[in-house]
């Protein structure tokens, strides 16, 4: 049984339907990428899993629990964490306070997780008292991921982690995602940088105009002529 | 009276304005609305305080606590009845609702509590410092003798205590950090698992408690009537905006600027123009906003 199972999902915002009949699966420990052109509904797919978009039909289950209608503040209790694409840290709060809120649903901040985040992102330990808004884009991305990892989730949802990063930082960021996945956390990642995402992931979905188009292992999708021609620029 | 004395008056005014302005600006920053009925919360606090102190009678510190509890309960009940149900409609409908609610509350208070003024029966000790020499420049005395009353000290001391406790709350407790987080980004707060309605309720209670205390302090300094809070709402609003709307630290700074400007303009404007002292507060507000639109402690104005 898959960890995350999205079945025949229609979703959008208010009267606007963005996704129709989407199916997605992520197994325990799996690394899954969603790619596709702008406006394909990739981010909306992720937001509907986390309760931030309106779910109109279909179902979402996580580890056997129906989370189709849960709001975000309840989804977080189920063992998945979400890193939004932008505005993923609280700019007027310090790094320390941001990390503390990463573990908000726990009674106290687990020291070993905090330490694990610092081992992964040492720069954060040096910036604890700085306002998150003063960090560089790359550092904010690390802080956002660090906050999500404070709960040691079974599944990490990443919305375009490479967006807005300087080109020389993009590879480093993908390496970090690999490392998180290798430590056992399943990853569902939306990425604009489709080739690199498919190269790294176990399995990928190609979304276009709010619908599933292709699904397969990353290598198969990269090798598929149709996918290359339509979505990867030949 | 010299400059030094008027600075004392300005600090006293700034202190009670600051306590109320913090509550006002927290509502603005976290619930995302301008609450014009907030002056009436101050009035409710002042009335509860003066009745507790006079009718029951209770010692002043206990009466002040009763007023704070009363203000907190009133604020939460009013929010649940009028603001929480329309929270999704955005700032403008909520602002209009608050103007209507303020009007209704003000008149309801006038009908039940009457037109007259009530006074806190406090024993005042006055400390005089007459040793200071005068330092006259033209008609203005830049130094001069100073007196401070025990009431002045209560007001200023209460304000300092509020600042310290509030700072600890906002930086040391989960609820306080969550309040600031919600002021930054409500969606992300929900993603972190923060129950945003619970935080909004906490803000309403906190703002009501602060209004209750401010009402008692204004009552000690002057008197309590159905317009006690309303007559201060523009100063509270100006202080909050001057400081950078949503920032409690900015509201404190803005309040003391307003308090000092009002006190000094009363003292040093030519006789016949002293009616302009409240207008002076707005003049300062306009000048500051022209130079720095986001206010004293404000961040860059974010796009809608």
Task: Describe the protein's architecture and organization.
The complex is a heterodimer of chains A (234) and B (304). Chain A has helices at 42-49, 72-75, 95-102, 111-120, 122-126, 137-149, 167-182, 194-200, 218-223, 225-231, and strands at 4-13, 16-26, 31-35, 54-62, 65-66, 80-83, 155-159, 186-190, 203-208, 211-217. Chain A is built from ten helices and ten strands. With 304 residues, chain B is mainly α. Chain B has a single domain (3-291), classed as ABC transporter involved in vitamin B12 uptake, BtuC (Orthogonal Bundle), CATH 1.10.3470. In chain B, 68% of the residues lie in helices and 4% in strands. In chain B, strands 1-4 form a two-stranded antiparallel sheet. A two-stranded antiparallel sheet of chain B has the order 2-3. In chain B, strand 2 and strand 3 (140-141) form a beta hairpin. In chain B, helix 2 (38-54) runs parallel beside helix 4. The relative contact order of chain B is 0.21. The model of chain B has no long low-confidence stretch (mean pLDDT 90). The A-B interface holds A 50-52, 71-73, 76-77, 82, 84, 87-93, 97, 100-102, 104-105, 133, 147 and B 171, 174, 177-178, 180-181, 183-185, 187-196, 299.
CATH class of the largest domain in chain A: Alpha Beta
The fraction of residues assigned to DSSP E strands of chain B is under 5%
Shape of chain A: globular
The counted number of beta strands of chain A is 10
Q: Which CATH top level class of chain B fits?
A: Mainly Alpha
Distance from N terminus to C terminus of chain B (CA atoms, Å) equals: 48 Å
Computed CA radius of gyration of chain B, to the nearest angstrom: 20 Å
Label the CATH architecture of chain B: Orthogonal Bundle
- Give the % helix of chain A: 25-40%
- Name of the CATH architecture of the largest domain in chain A: 3-Layer(aba) Sandwich
CATH superfamily of the largest domain in chain A: P-loop containing nucleotide triphosphate hydrolases
Cα-to-Cα separation, first versus last residue of chain A: 35 Å
Largest interface: A-B, 25 and 20 residues
Element pattern of chain B in H and E: HHHHEEEEHHHHHHH
Instruction: Assign the CATH topology of the largest domain in chain A.
Output: Rossmann fold
Instruction: Return the structural class of chain A.
Output: alpha/beta
- The averaged pLDDT of chain B comes out at 90
The outline of chain B comes out as globular
Main sheet attributes: strand count, strand direction, barrel closure of chain B? 2 strands, antiparallel
């Amino acid at each position: 049984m898959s960890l995350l199972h999205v079945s025949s999902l229609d979703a959008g915002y208010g009267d606007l339907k963005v996704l129709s009949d989407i199916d997605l699966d992520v197994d325990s420990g799996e690394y899954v990428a969603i790619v596709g052109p702008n406006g394909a509904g990739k981010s909306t797919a992720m937001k509907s899993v986390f309760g931030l978009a309106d779910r109109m039909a279909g179902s979402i289950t996580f580890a056997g629990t129906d989370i189709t209608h849960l709001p975000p503040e309840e989804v977080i209790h189920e063992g998945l964490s979400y890193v939004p694409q932008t505005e993923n840290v609280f700019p007027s709060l310090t790094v320390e306070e941001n990390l503390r809120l990463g573990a908000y649903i726990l009674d106290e901040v687990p020291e070993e997780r905090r330490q694990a985040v610092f081992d992964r992102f040492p720069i954060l330990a040096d910036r604890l008292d700085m306002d998150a808004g003063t960090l560089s884009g790359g550092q904010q991305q690390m802080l956002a991921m660090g906050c999500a990892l404070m709960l040691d989730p079974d599944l990490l949802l990443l919305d375009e982690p490479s967006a807005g990063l300087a080109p020389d930082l993009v590879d480093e960021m993908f390496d970090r995602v690999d490392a998180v996945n290798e430590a056992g956390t399943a990853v569902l990642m939306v990425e604009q940088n489709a080739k690199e995402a498919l190269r790294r992931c176990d399995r990928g979905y190609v979304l276009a105009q709010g619908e599933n188009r292709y699904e397969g292992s990353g290598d198969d999708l990269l090798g598929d002529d149709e996918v290359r021609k339509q979505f990867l620029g030949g | 009276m010299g400059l030094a004395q008027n600075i004392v008056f300005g600090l006293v005014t700034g202190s009670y304005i600051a306590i109320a302005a913090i509550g006002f600006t927290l509502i603005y920053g976290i619930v995302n609305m301008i609450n014009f009925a907030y002056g009436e919360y101050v009035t409710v606090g002042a009335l509860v305080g003066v009745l507790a102190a006079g009718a029951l009678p209770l010692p002043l510190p206990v009466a002040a606590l009763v007023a704070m509890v009363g203000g907190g309960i009133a604020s939460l009940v009013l929010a649940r009845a009028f603001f929480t149900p329309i929270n999704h409609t955005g700032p403008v409908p909520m602002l209009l609702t608050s103007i209507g609610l303020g009007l209704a509350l003000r008149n309801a208070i006038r009908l039940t509590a009457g037109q007259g003024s009530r006074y806190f029966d406090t024993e005042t000790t006055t400390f005089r410092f007459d040793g200071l020499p005068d330092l006259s420049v033209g008609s203005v005395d830049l130094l001069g003798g100073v007196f401070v009353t025990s009431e002045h000290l209560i007001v200023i001391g209460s304000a300092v205590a509020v600042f310290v406790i509030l700072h600890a709350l906002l930086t040391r407790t989960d609820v306080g950090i969550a309040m600031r987080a919600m002021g930054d980004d409500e969606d992300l707060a929900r993603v972190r698992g923060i129950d945003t309605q619970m935080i909004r309720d906490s803000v309403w209670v906190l703002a009501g408690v602060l209004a209750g205390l401010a009402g008692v302090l204004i009552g000690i300094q002057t008197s309590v009537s159905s317009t006690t809070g309303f007559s201060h709402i523009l100063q509270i609003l100006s202080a909050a905006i001057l400081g950078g709307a949503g920032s409690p630290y900015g509201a404190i700074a803005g309040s003391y600027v307003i308090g000092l400007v009002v006190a000094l303009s009363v003292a040093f404007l030519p006789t016949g123009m002293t009616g302009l002292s409240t207008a002076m507060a707005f003049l300062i507000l306009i000048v500051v906003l022209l130079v720095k639109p986001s206010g004293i402690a404000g961040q860059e104005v974010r796009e809608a």
